[in-house]
Specification:
By secondary structure, the chain is of the alpha/beta class. It folds into 2 domains: 171 residues, P-loop containing nucleotide triphosphate hydrolases (Rossmann fold, 3-Layer(aba) Sandwich), CATH 3.40.50.300; 109 residues, Helicase, Ruva Protein, domain 3 (Orthogonal Bundle). The chain contains 14 helices and 13 strands. It has a 5-stranded parallel beta sheet with strand order 6-9-12-3-13, sandwiched between helices. Helix 9 crosses helix 10 and helix 11 packs across helix 14. The chain is globular, with a radius of gyration of 22 Å. The two termini are 30 Å apart. The C terminus is likely disordered.
């Protein structure tokens, strides 16, 4: 699919890097997860994967003459201008557009990111004029930040705040403007060039450490596919179109199923027991694992969680939050997490038996406590 008129390398043609692709797909299913930080060496398809995901996602309906990509079907998320127009009885026209992919410019200032209010115009003419920034352009799409570790900490804070809140509010001299800023934040960095502060690291929901592919056959496949794409982008895309369509449909199906996925008290207890056992600070990791596990269940077309959902969610949630690194490689990580989830599940079962409350949310006794992520 095209990005600004240019064909993008297909997502399904990316060789290996399965965890990175899984983290991106789960964020596409549920943007409330909170984005992903991809750490690793150069040339490992980080930006390629982010662009390919944006091109893969279905088109969106937006207010036609607005600058903020407001969803005409979600009035509660509209910008200040759209709300005022609707309040005056105006019918807002809309049209279909591609999901935006926005790359943060190098050296971007806070005003460039959040946008600016024209105070002089407001004082002299009594008109409120807002110049949109990067957050407005990225609404309902993907915001890609390369070398996020080299950004000013304050700019990173602004990006993470907007990603978490889903809204951008700018206030100057008593004048306020608000617009939706619901996007998938994808940050990439090379740890050899410096790290993020722990407080900022923790606010990235998921984290993936990527390396160059070591298998010789897979490396050869990477060369072959990239050369084929360079020589004939349209032909290469057509070759991979069936796989792209299958993946796009599966993501859309998972999005539709997401509100129906339920979790139990045992699921929450399993996550809490595991996080407590690992000594993870704060509670953000617990919530991220639950949201990610729910998205993974929807991805696998289920309406209930399994231990596998929790394990795979933990694998993406913990790399940047553990004080120590108990896992030396991916295989050990998966094996250890599997044991931890099983042990936490057993302990959660014991606790629930003592409470005599082992029913799933959604039954007659616990219907009022049923939750959605």
């Amino acid at each position: 699919m095209a990005d600004n008129g240019r064909l993008v390398f297909p997502f399904t043609a990316i060789v290996d890097q399965e965890r990175m692709k899984r983290a991106l797909i789960l964020n596409a299913i549920n943007f409330r997860i909170g984005g992903v930080l991809i750490r690793g060496e150069r040339g490992t398809a980080k930006s390629t994967a982010a662009r390919a995901l944006a091109a893969l996602l279905p088109d969106i309906e937006v207010v036609a003459d607005g600058a903020f990509g407001c969803d005409p079907a979600q009035p509660a998320t509209w910008c200040t201008v759209c709300r005022e127009r609707a309040a005056q009885g105006e019918t807002l026209p809309h049209y279909t557009k591609k999901v935006p992919f926005v790359e943060l410019p190098i050296g971007a200032t806070e005003d460039r990111v959040v946008g600016t209010l024209d105070i002089e115009r407001a004082i002299q003419k009594g008109e409120r004029h807002f110049e949109p920034g990067v957050l407005a352009a990225a609404n309902r799409g993907i915001l890609y930040v390369d070398e996020v570790n080299l950004l000013d900490d304050h700019i990173v804070d602004v990006l993470l705040d907007a990603a978490a809140m889903g809204v951008n509010t700018v206030e100057r001299e008593g004048i306020s403007f608000q617009h939706p800023a619901r996007f998938i934040l994808v940050g990439t960095m090379n740890p050899e060039e410096g790290d993020l502060r722990p407080q900022l690291l923790d606010r990235f929901a998921l984290c993936v450490d990527v390396q160059g592919v070591r298998d010789a056959r897979a490396r050869m496949a990477i060369m072959e596919r990239n050369l084929a794409f360079e020589q004939d982008p349209a032909g290469f895309y057509e070759e991979w179109l069936p796989q792209e369509m299958v993946l796009a449909e599966r993501i859309e199906d998972a999005r539709c199923l997401l509100p129906d996925v339920r979790y139990t008290r045992n699921d929450m207890s399993t996550i809490a027991e595991m996080m407590a056992g690992l000594g993870v600070d704060g509670h953000r990791a617990d919530l991220v694992i639950l949201k990610t596990a729910v998205a993974h269940a929807a991805w696998e077309a289920r309406t209930h969680l399994t231990d596998r959902d929790i394990m795979l969610a933990a694998e993406l949630t913990l790399p940047h939050r553990l004080k120590r690194k108990p896992f030396d490689d991916v295989q050990t990580s998966i094996a250890e997490l599997d044991k931890m989830v099983a042990a936490a599940r057993d302990k959660a079962d014991d606790v629930e038996m003592e409470r005599d409350d082992t029913s799933m949310y959604g039954d007659a006794a616990g219907e009022d406590r049923q939750k959605k992520v």
